[in-house]
Hints:
Elements: E1 3-5, E2 21-22, E3 29-31, H1 40-48, E4 52-54, H2 55-74, H3 79-83, H4 106-119, H5 126-143, H6 145-156, H7 164-181, H8 186-198, H9 204-211, H10 219-239, H11 244-251, H12 266-282, H13 293-301, H14 307-319, E5 327-330, E6 335-340, E7 349-354, E8 367-368, E9 377-381, H15 392-400
Antiparallel strand pairs: 1-4, 2-3, 5-6, 5-9, 6-7, 7-8
Helix pairs in contact: 2-4, 4-5, 4-7, 5-6, 6-7, 7-8, 7-12, 7-14, 8-11, 10-11, 12-13, 12-14, 13-14
Pfam families: HD_5
Protein name: Phosphohydrolase
Organism: Rhodoferax saidenbachensis
Amino acid sequence: MNYIPIPISMLEVGKPLPVDVWSGNGQQLLLRKGQPIVSEQHRDKLHAHQACSTATEGLAWQQAYERMVHQMLRDGVDVLTIATAPMPSVILERDYVVGQQFSGGWLDIQEVLRGVLYQGGLAINPLPRLAGLERKCAALLKSDTDDSLFCLFQALADGTLGYCATNALLCAVVCDLAGQKLGLDPMQRQTLRRAALTMNIGMAREQDSLARQSEPLTPEQRTLIADHPWRSVDILVTLGIDDEDVLDIVRWHHAPQSPKAMSRNLASRRLLHLADGFVARMAGRKTRMSFAPVKAVKSMVMGAEGEVVGVGSAMAQAVGFYPPGSYVQLTNGETAVSVQRGERANTPWVVPIVDKDGMPISKYVGRNTATETAYAIAGAVNFEKVRVTINPEKVRQARERIPR
């Protein structure tokens, strides 16, 4: 039988545990299911005995934790409260379904990834979980790139979902698509995806908190932001990640041209650095509105020279100036959501959702901004200015009617 460590420091004193607790490698039963940790000294004893659970129960417990965090976010619980939440004391039957966390779409992946990032060095069985997440991301992206971009850019505008996991997923997708444009080989792109998914594990909880903060950054927060690449690497090494290229990209993703970094990963680091900045600009904050995608791209390459301009151009070509999931104003006065990239970066297919009088449009119809003059794009619209809730299923149906 396989055993995995349990996150002892995340267990609440006095609350029953939903798993049997064993000493290292299952040598001795330390606590039966339903028994609590009775004191801090008891917790220290579990540490000394390298407390673990069976892999089946441990993974189900992890799934219960992810489900709990997701529900707390949905309920509007403050991120700081979520960050200190202990492991749940109840595991539901559905938490034991093997592979359930990878059977859905992008929002399901986001939920699982957020749980792993939040737990950091205490994550249960993290390497197989991260590998499964990466495979599912690659499969969804290959199956329908435009739908993938639509889902993730829409998620970026939804503050109830948190920011850290959405940022990681969008950076991984943008890097993969732009990496293809730049001629990175499949192995380089795989390494880059792995780095993107985990680069902020050293400040995941704080990242979600900062995204909702209305006050200026404190000196301590600025230090955390500056140091988090190194903290992330330390956590990844603790988790068992020993890929030198992944660790190099994570360590220097804020300083891609550092002379201390590996020269062979320069293109990957530069791409991840720009993708991270692009996604951050498109995410709204309490202190500023979100950037429109085309403005986010321009702000990154303005004043840049050489390779940086080429990377920014590749990103724009890969996702478009108006990527699926973002909003535009049409020349006829309507507001539309981009649903599919067009032949050029500035001519996506869109679905009008608000008419010129500000009324919601109930019938979703795909429009080609390149050939239909009345539906040409007049400009981008920030996420915050759109008050209409989009029906994703109606968007998919409209996309299915677009000529291929």
